[in-house]
């Protein structure tokens, strides 16, 4: 019948080893083999069941009935709750800091739209009459402005850091200056450059109060056309900058109101 497969026990081997004979041994051997086969089938079914079981979904078993953000005003009230996982990417935000949290619809929408869970501060109350005054000490006209601004945590105009001015009231001029330049200090105008006339050079308009002091002198000729005025009657004259600008703008050298 051929050679016996190595490691495999036959009916005859077991009967010889046990010293059994006849039908009684045959029945016992058959029952043992049957039980062993059933056990093997059960193991196969168990392994198959374990391998085919679906993986638990992310967030499964998490309590979805309460917002876990400690600053939430109504943690138990929401039309929907969200479990934050590594796959949460709504709004293009970085949700990693909230991983594993359950948040209500309001908190979820706030983080998605603004990138933070903290609710915005309520709009500042309108300023009453006595508050409408600029609190910047260097303001030249603190009580005069078309509009006054109270600085709050929500003030972000111009991309500036307004935290150092938190709670202060600024007039429109100071507010605009800080928004544009990042400082309340007004820009210091450079000193006017005064050039003394060279020997023989002076404003020849006889009513000029400072004929030898000017940032610039102009010799009038037939080529002079500034301001569209008729310069022909001043041909050959030398004018200081103040007199030149006056004639260019008004067509006369006479100072307005008796002032040069």
Account of the protein in words:
The protein starts with 10 loop residues before the first helix and ends in a 10-residue tail after the last helix. Among the domains are: 65-119, no CATH class; 129-181, no CATH class; 195-253, no CATH class. It has 5 helices and 8 strands. The strands form 4 sheets. It has a two-stranded antiparallel sheet with strand order 1-2. A two-stranded antiparallel ribbon has the order 3-4. The chain has a two-stranded antiparallel ribbon with strand order 5-6. The protein has 260 residues and is of the alpha+beta class. It has helices at residues 11-18, 22-52, 105-114, 172-181, 241-250, and strands at residues 81-83, 102-104, 148-150, 169-171, 195-196, 213-214, 217-219, 238-240. Residues 1-11 have a biased composition (Basic and acidic residues). Residues 48-58 have a biased composition (Low complexity). Residues 1-21, 35-65 are annotated as: Disordered.
Please outline the helices and strands.
Blueprint: H1 11-18, H2 22-52, E1 81-83, E2 102-104, H3 105-114, E3 148-150, E4 169-171, H4 172-181, E5 195-196, E6 213-214, E7 217-219, E8 238-240, H5 241-250
Antiparallel strand pairs: 1-2, 3-4, 5-6, 7-8
Region (Disordered): 1-21, 35-65
Biased composition (Low complexity): 48-58
Biased composition (Basic and acidic residues): 1-11
Q: What keyword list fits this structure?
A:
two-stranded antiparallel sheet; alpha+beta; 260 residues; 8 strands; 5 helices; 27% helix
